[in-house]
From TrEMBL:
Pfam families from the UniProt entry: GTP1_OBG, MMR_HSR1
Protein name in UniProt: GTPase Obg
Gene name in the database record: obg
Amino-acid positions noted as binding Mg(2+) in the UniProt annotation, renumbered to this chain: 229, 249
Keyword Signal: no
Gene Ontology terms describing biological process: ribosome biogenesis
The species this protein was found in: Candidatus Cerribacteria bacterium 'Amazon FNV 2010 28 9'
Chain ranges of the OBG-type G domain: 216-413
């Protein structure tokens, strides 16, 4: 599942240099005094871990920075314009349409003749007035690749531009133009009344695609301290921190679940994430709040892990254990429901096509099964008899892990 949004981005052009001559009471036509143009704003992308989806952009068509101001008389410098910052989720890839990109155009010379007609020409000679600066983006594996996107019913070829992989990563995505120099700057002993100045650079503009990859194929979901990270470590190559207290995991850990097989089509690998613990009221911002629910939204398949801590298993009778597990299950589903209803309204408003949480495939596992006596297990098994796909697992003895892997493989292959 991919969250994708096309967007037109334009940086601000540099302001033109001014053509002007000093006029005073005594001097009808004095020396040149046209000021330089101001710099146009750039558009800068910034990764923000508090943003989880691209839905802020789904109703939007354009992001624009302002053009720099034209230079003024009396050698006044035109105003520089501010850069525009765009906050995107960590993990956003950015692509740019090849056909719809206008690169930066260097400064040119211009003049305005007696009839008020403007003429432009390319500057010659050596000075840095017209130099086009190159702009550097961090190279990644995808550098140099292209991809087709559909845009208003047609197919658009886009090239990979950059990827925001860490919180606070920043990339200039469209550079604003530098201002042109005013005619004051072109005066010389042989050229005392220059009637020409520079245009500003015209800025980068183009059609871009923001693409947010899924966080993971599988998300492990459940209350704090119930063994999600332990499960991740036995399913995948990951070795996340495991500890006997709640909220050990604050950001999802990712691991690769590998399926080996004799035939090529049996071999596969998937990304699994353990999601920070869910608690009652999380959908209203309690605990880690809704940030983790947004992580869940970026998983294809959910594994809901239900378990109690070892003291609860030791001290309580079967009936109480069943009650607690059922209550936990109810609460997890409740939090997912509340979050989904809230986000649905928002999504509807903006017309994003998103797979709702309730339509995601899910598996329910009863964790820490090694801590249950046979009698307790029987009770729990009969209570969860009608819950689809519920079964015991243990990250310690590996009970049920092979079953879980097989079920995941089936689901992932078919979805
Ligand atoms: N006996 C037993 N203990 C387990 C099992 N899985 C996890 N534990 C223990 O339960 C405690 C919590 O395990 P974690 O894997 O850190 O749990 P978590 O769900 O990731 O916890 P948070 O990140 O805090 O939400 C640790 O002390 C683990 O050793 C299991 O299958 N059996
Ligand atoms: Mg954890």
């Amino acid at each position: 599942m991919v969250d994708l949004t096309p967007i037109y981005i334009s940086a601000g052009d540099g302001g033109d240099g001014r053509i002007s001559f000093l006029r005073t009471r005594y001097q009808q036509k004095g020396g040149p005094d046209g000021g330089d143009g101001g710099k146009g704003g750039s558009v800068i992308l910034r990764a923000d871990q508090n943003v989880q989806t691209l839905r802020d952009f789904s109703g939007k068509k354009k992001i624009e920075a302002k053009n720099g101001q034209t230079g003024g008389a009396y050698k006044q410098h035109g105003k520089d314009m501010e850069d525009v910052y765009v906050r995107l989720p960590v993990g956003t890839a950015v692509w740019r349409s090849i056909a719809d990109f206008e690169p930066m155009r260097e400064r040119r010379m211009y003049t305005i003749d007696e009839e008020g007609e403007r003429k432009e020409w390319k500057r010659t000679g050596r000075d840095d007035g017209g130099k086009v600066r190159s702009h550097i983006l961090t190279p990644t594996k995808r550098a140099g690749t292209t991809k087709m996107f559909s845009y208003h019913g047609s197919e658009v070829e886009a090239e990979f531009v950059t990827e925001l992989l860490h919180h606070d990563d920043e990339r200039v995505i469209a550079r604003g133009g530098y201002g042109g120099r005013g005619n004051f700057q072109f005066r010389s002993s042989s050229h005392t009344t220059p009637r020409d100045a520079e245009t500003g650079e015209s800025a980068e503009k183009g059609l871009f695609f923001f693409e947010l990859q899924s966080l993971a194929d599988v998300g492990l979901v459940g209350f704090p301290n119930i063994g999600k990270s332990t499960l991740l470590s036995v399913l995948t190559n990951a070795s996340p921190q495991v500890a006997n207290y709640p909220f050990t995991t604050l950001e999802p850990n990712l691991g690769i679940l590998q399926f080996d097989g004799k035939k090529a089509e049996e071999r596969d690998s998937y990304v699994v994430a353990d999601i920070p613990g869910i608690i009652e009221g999380a959908s209203e911002g309690k605990g880690l709040g809704i940030a983790f629910l947004r992580h869940i939204e970026r998983c294809r398949v959910l594994v809901i892990v239900l378990a109690l801590d070892e003291y609860a298993y030791m001290e309580q009778d079967s009936e109480q254990i069943v009650q607690h597990l059922e209550e936990q299950y109810r609460q997890v589903e409740h939090e997912l429901d509340v979050y989904e209803k809230a986000s649905e309204q928002e999504l509807e408003k903006q017309g994003t096509n998103h797979v709702p949480l309730s339509e995601k495939q899910r598996i329910i596992v009863l964790g820490k099964a090694d801590l249950l006596s046979d009698e307790q297990k029987q009770h729990v098994a009969s209570a969860f008899h009608s819950t689809p796909r519920a079964f015991f697992i243990s990250g310690k003895t590996l009970e049920g892990i092979a079953t879980l892997k097989n079920k995941l493989h089936e689901m992932l292959r078919s979805s």
